[in-house]
Design goal:
408 residues, alpha/beta, rod-shaped, six-stranded mixed sheet
Length: 408
Amino acid sequence: MAYPHAQRTYTIVGIDPGTTVGIAILDLDGNPVDVFSAKNYSLSDAIERIITRGRPLIIASDVAPTPAMVKKIGSLIASHVPELEESLSMEEKLALTRGECFEYRNAHERDALAASLHAFKQYKAKFAQIQKKTPAGVDEAEVKALVIKGVSISAAINRLLTAREEKKLRRDKRIAGTKAREEPPGESKTVLRLRELLKGKDERIALLEERTAALKDLLAERERDIRRLKRRLDAERSELRREVKKSELIHARNAEIEQLRAEVATRTSEIEELQRIIERLRGKRAVKGGKRIKVVPSFTHDAIQEFDRKYGITRGDIVLFEDGSGGGPSTAELVAKKGVSAVIYGKELSHFAVETFDSFNIPALSLDAVPLRSKDEDFAFIDQAVLDEQVADWKQKARKRSKVLLVR
């Protein structure tokens, strides 16, 4: 996020490098100038943002050792890069960036801001001394800049005082020379004003030259990056062409493998189901004098079809429906058409279902009439003699019903 700043000033910069780059810029009073982050931000983009927002004196990081990108930026723009003894902890970073004047949107901006504030903190006491010792008329920011570059406070102040005196002497000489030439009245003021304008232009030119040099370095770096990326792109294109030649064969093989895997899974599932059925059937030993029957839990289409899928319902089978209340004529017809010889039901069958079985000449017997001798999951045994007796009784009643119908 950008902060309003009226003039181009000396700055302290914190950088969090990576896929997403975080940049935080402070002035020499510790006030934020800019806090920013962007994904896939190049080295040249970062440098351009930094130098357009001030004159960087320090480029700092929150980790040790200092990342290569931070060192490179410091080298390209001739700024001091302090080396931390150890990386800043999360507690330190949160403590440094706590405050209403410090705003950040994500962890990258927070880490960059913490790096710049930690660097500022290292010079805070020195800056306070500079503020006390700097005499009126000497630019305090210039003293701070010289001290950061390694000059002592007194030497920095003396250097600036000397420069100011030399500047004053040069100006006095120019004024004296102007008077000696006996310029017409009013011309000296005009000349002085022009000289002041010229001085401002000179400073502007120096600033632009400084920025031009930095941008030239950026351009050279970007050109090297472009050449490197072109070489990588050519290599990747060659590799891609080789991969494309293999892709169709690989795709066909993968499709075949997936198909075979699906078939294997299906066969495995079927085998496992058959093994479970075999295991269940192994335990179904015949009971002496008994008849084995098949047990379906309910008299519904779904239950009948599920049992038929597992074990089969075939001609001559006797089927017990533990709950006979679920179906009607269509369910009875589904069972009858499989050719069963008799049906036993637990809960009462509907009148319509019984009539349907009668129409197919299939006895429908109550479980009370033909009790189970034993039962194991999907199979059971009943007494053969009892079954024969009940079937014979059913047939006798069926014949009587037929005679009654004929008489009518």
